[in-house]
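Translate structure to sequence.
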């Protein structure tokens, strides 16, 4: 899934050169304000103008302020990671015919090779409902791909190609990221513009966005690096040439307002992605906990309509009598209000709290049954795999 300007007057060669340096420094200010600021002060001092009391003389400026080349850092990172970036083509089941001929619908996204054994990370929504998969390498070679495993809740998937791969991208530590740090997105927007590079910054960390009813994708990285349809599954890279995120979605506006937003891209943090990917490679699936209930989120409107005694939590609408919840004595119509002492609300959705635990763990559920408040202990099962 970024008015007219009066022509500048002619400058001397020396002055024009200094202005060009200053312009380049300003152009790069989104990448490093400190470097641009240091360069501007340095130019002012060379011109013999006063740069303000207390500023150091040029000879006292740290070497990093005059020699760091952000452009080189970006290009070096791209050269390191770009050969490992791929286009993932999803051949969907046949859906229609045109003029008597079958049409095979396809969808595409991006991915990144993370192992010399041919494992490729992408998004679950890129490979969803696939009849078959192909991966196009950076050199143009197209190879059949095998689906290894998916985690719809993390929106991650692993596919594998056979044979020698052109490059492997290394993981970085997303826990070390700070707002303002330069990052690079690489992918195939619209499935056509292969290995497109966009540059921006980490706008924020630890963001949460609702991706499914009652579930929030948590711990996301927010970036203003341009992400478009087809970029999904591609890497977000730091200046060390390490994958610190897997691009997953972009927000264009709010459901509560008509304003359109730009520069709101989101990536799954590398530490989350790596943990999920390792399980998918080792086991082919992610083991999620299971209660054996269907539920509906309680809102003030729902509470008023059904005269519920609480306006937070989740209402059990169906229950499997042989499942963990049924065996623990929970009933249809019960409202779960807390899990291990943490309130179930908009900030802490029930399924997110549940997924903090593992199958086999015992948890305490706060329950409202009519006008009565209960605490029920449940041993979690394992979520059935499709």
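Result:
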């Amino acid at each position: 899934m970024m008015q007219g300007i009066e022509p500048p007057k002619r400058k001397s060669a020396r002055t024009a050169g200094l202005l060009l340096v200053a312009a380049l420094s300003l152009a790069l200010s989104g990448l490093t304000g400190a470097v641009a600021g240091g360069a501007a002060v340095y130019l002012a001092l060379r011109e013999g103008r006063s740069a303000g009391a207390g500023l150091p003389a040029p000879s006292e400026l740290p070497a990093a302020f005059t020699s760091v080349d952000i452009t080189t850092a970006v290009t070096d990172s791209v050269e390191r990671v770009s050969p490992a970036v791929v286009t993932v083509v999803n051949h969907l089941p046949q859906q229609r015919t045109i003029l008597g001929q079958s049409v095979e619908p396809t969808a595409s996204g991006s991915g990144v090779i993370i192992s010399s054994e041919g494992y490729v990370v992408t998004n679950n929504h890129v490979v969803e409902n696939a009849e078959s998969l192909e991966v196009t390498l950076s050199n143009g070679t197209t190879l059949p791909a095998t689906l290894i495993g998916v985690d719809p809740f993390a929106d991650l998937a692993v596919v594998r190609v056979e044979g020698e791969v052109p490059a492997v991208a290394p993981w970085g530590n997303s826990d070390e990221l700070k707002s303002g740090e330069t990052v690079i997105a690489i992918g195939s927007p619209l499935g056509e513009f292969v290995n497109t590079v966009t540059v921006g910054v980490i706008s924020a960390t630890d963001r949460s966005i609702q991706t499914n009813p009652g579930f929030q994708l948590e711990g996301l990285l927010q970036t203003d690096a341009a992400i478009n349809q087809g970029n999904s599954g591609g890497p977000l890279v730091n200046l060390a040439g390490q994958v610190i995120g897997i691009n997953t979605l972009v927000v264009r506006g709010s459901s509560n307002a008509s304003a359109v937003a730009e520069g709101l891209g989101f990536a799954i943090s590398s530490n989350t992605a790596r943990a999920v990917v390792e399980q998918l490679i080792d086991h082919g699936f992610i083991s999620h906990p299971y209660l054996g209930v269907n539920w509906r989120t309680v809102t003030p409107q729902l509470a008023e309509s059904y005269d519920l005694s609480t306006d937070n939590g989740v209402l059990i609408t169906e229950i499997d009598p042989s499942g963990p919840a049924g065996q623990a004595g929970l009933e249809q119509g019960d409202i779960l209000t807390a899990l291990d002492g943490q309130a179930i609300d908009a900030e802490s959705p029930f399924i997110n709290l549940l997924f903090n635990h593992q199958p086999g763990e015992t948890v305490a559920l706060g329950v409202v049954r009519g006008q009565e408040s209960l605490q029920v202990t449940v041993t979690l099962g394992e979520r059935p795999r499709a």
